[in-house]
Design goal:
The chain has about 240 residues and is of the alpha+beta class. The protein is built from eleven helices and five strands, in the order ααββααβααββααααα.
Length: about 240
Amino acid sequence: MIDSDVFDFVERCRRHTATGPLLGDLLETVRNLGFEHLILSGVPLGGQKLAPMVELNGWPAGWFERYVAAEHAAVDGVCIYSAKTLKPFFWADVPAKWSDTEGSRRVAGEATEFGILSGFAVPMLSVHHWQSVLSFASSQKSCSLSPRQQVQLVTMAVYAGMSIQALSNDDGSDEGPLTDREKEVLLWAAAGKTSSETSQILGLTERTVKWHSTRAREAFGVATTTQAVVEAVRRRLIHP
């Protein structure tokens, strides 16, 4: 791949108005570097589910369904390490602490059934998630990229991520994942108020406040109200 291929992709990113064409364009471009599949997703943390966080799904048919159904994200060394670094890395370089576990080895073994043997991951900061990662997968036993090719891949990953965020911000919809009441409840939770105190402030029953908290947690796929508050702040839905 030459640098002009990367610049051409970056230019096309600005013209894509939907995720499908963007995914197809990126897949076609990175094939020149030996990658046949990719996925762009938020990195699940604290009990979050992967499926709602996926923004580009270029995994082989069947593998995504198995990965999600088996909740592989909780044990997959690549996924776990993606939450701990912002430095791009080869899958093979994930520290043994996370890659050499029974669960992680099982995930890697099952992936080979779908032609996935190696890969390269690009973690990124995200407006919509704690952190995101664009992970490129190859059917080769090991990835071989020169330092310049790694830069090319990272550049394309970053621009693809920026394009996804731009598309989600410009979708023409005023409706977000939270209702105004859910935002209010999270805002008071961020201020340290209990459900009882919030109910008095908003003139609601405590049961109703707890219901809105539950709905907010479900909207973000998180386990606690504190995590929902953090996610709402990161997405700029509330401003404590």
